[in-house]
Design a protein that fits this description.
Length: 215
C-alpha cells in the first residue's frame, strides 16, 4: 500500500487544517499517545469525513460516502452482522470475483488479513469511510434486508411503479409492529432513511430510494 505523504501534510494540502492545528495536535500527542487523526478529530479541527478522505488519499484507496452509497444485498451478507459489527466493516459491492469492503482504517493490517480470510473465495478490494458512518450503515442495511415487514417494504419500493399508498401503509404498519412513538424520514441526495422511535431511541428501519423522492 503506497502512501502519498504524512497525514498532517495531506490534511493541509486538502485545505482541511493549518500548520498551527498540527502543532497543537502534536503537543497533545506527546501526552496522550493517540493517533494524530484521532486527536485532530477530537479537537474539532477536522470532521470525520475530512479525516476519512485524507486517509483514503494517503493510502491510495477509494473513499465511499455511505450516505449516498446503496450496498448490494448479495455483497452485504458475505459477512454476518456480528462479524461486520466486530470489525466495523461493510461489504458493499461485488463485481465478478471481487468484493468491495468498506473499512475505517487503511493501516489496520491485521483486520484486513482477517477479512481477506473470511472472504477467501473472493478478491478483496478495500475502501475507506468514517467509522461512525460504517456503524450506522451496518444497523440500517442489515435491518433493511432482514426484518419481515421491511422485506415487504423493500419489494414494494423497488418495483418499477411502486404503490405510494401501500408504501405509506407499510411504514405505518412497521411503526405499529415495533410500537414506535414517532416516525422520522431523513432525506439525503439520493436516498432517504426511515427511522422509528422505539423506547425513546431513534432506530434505523428502512431506506427509501431516490426514485420515490418526488412522490
Amino acid at each position: 500500500m503506497s502512501q502519498k505523504g504524512k497525514l498532517g501534510e495531506i490534511l493541509i494540502k486538502l485545505g482541511f487544517i493549518t500548520q498551527e492545528h498540527i502543532e497543537v495536535a502534536l503537543k497533545i500527542q506527546q501526552i496522550q499517545k493517540k493517533k494524530l487523526g484521532e486527536i485532530l478529530k477530537e479537537l474539532g479541527f477536522v470532521s470525520p469525513r475530512e479525516l476519512a478522505l485524507a486517509l483514503a488519499y494517503q493510502a491510495n484507496l477509494e473513499y465511499i460516502n455511505l450516505e449516498e452509497y446503496y450496498p448490494k444485498k448479495e455483497a452485504l451478507f458475505l459477512l454476518t452482522k456480528r462479524i461486520a459489527t466486530l470489525y466495523n466493516a461493510l461489504c458493499v459491492d461485488i463485481k465478478g470475483d471481487t468484493v468491495l469492503v468498506v473499512i475505517d482504517d487503511p493501516y489496520d493490517i491485521r483486520k484486513q488479513a482477517t477479512l481477506r480470510n473470511l472472504l477467501k473465495n473472493y478478491k478483496v478490494k478495500f475502501a475507506i469511510a468514517e467509522p461512525e458512518a460504517i456503524v450506522r450503515a451496518i444497523e440500517i442495511y442489515y435491518t433493511y434486508y432482514t426484518n419481515p415487514l421491511d422485506k415487504q417494504f423493500t419489494e414494494e419500493i423497488l418495483k418499477p411503479e411502486p404503490d405510494i399508498e401501500k408504501v405509506v401503509d407499510l411504514i405505518l404498519n412497521m411503526a405499529i409492529y415495533y410500537n414506535a412513538s414517532d416516525i422520522h424520514i431523513n432525506p439525503l441526495s439520493n436516498v432517504s432513511f426511515l427511522f422509528l422511535r422505539i423506547d425513546g431511541i431513534l432506530q434505523p428501519t428502512a431506506v427509501i430510494p431516490y426514485s420515490l423522492h418526488g412522490n
